[in-house]
Amino acid sequence: MAPPAGPSDRHETGDTERAQSVEPIAVLFRALESVAGEVSPQLARAVQATINVVKQIGREFGLLTETEAQAALGPGNAADMADFGVRYRGETFYPGFLFEPVPDGEGAMRVRPLLKDLKKIAREYGWDGQDVVFWMTSPSTWFADHRRPVDHLHEPAAVMAALTDEAGIQW
Asked: Which residue stretches belong to region Disordered (predicted)?
């Protein structure tokens, strides 16, 4: 006979959920304690937000190491990716959406031509490549559908206009 289901089963589930949330808290607590000075809540939140964005980009588009990206692009195209690296855990990674197959290139890859144009716009406004990558993967009101610029790669002029508008905002 099976044990009766009831509050004790829910209690065990609650214990499991509590244990799963206690571990990250303990790890964060130790990490923040290891910093000599004080860490503001804003800084801690900003760091975690960056980690979350990088993980999401990796899950959705894949992240290539510099060696992997150079191998995919070949020696002639590797220089084009240099400004779009995302720093994470001491390494530079390149999101998969930066690359596309070379037309009639028999499997060879290249950095999307749009990225060269975005690089020029970004530099004009003081943005770096990581800023552009994060902007590309964030919902934007610059598009009627409020989707992300990365969802509009088929509309390069619209993406360039959106970046120009976004980067050019002065408060």
From this structure: 1-20
Residue 17 domain-assigned (yes or no): no
Strand-pairing partners, residue 95, are 63
- The domain tally of the chain equals 1
Strand partners, 65: 93
* pTM of the predicted structure, to 2 decimals: 0.78
Q: Which domain range does residue 123 map to?
A: 39-167
Q: How far is CA 43 from CA 50, 77, 148, 158, in A?
A: 11, 37, 25, 33
Residues 60-111 have pLDDT tens digits of: 999 999 889 988 887 677 777 778 899 998 899 999 999 998 887 666 788 9
Q: What is the pLDDT of residues 127-148, one digit of tens each?
A: 999 999 999 999 989 899 999 9
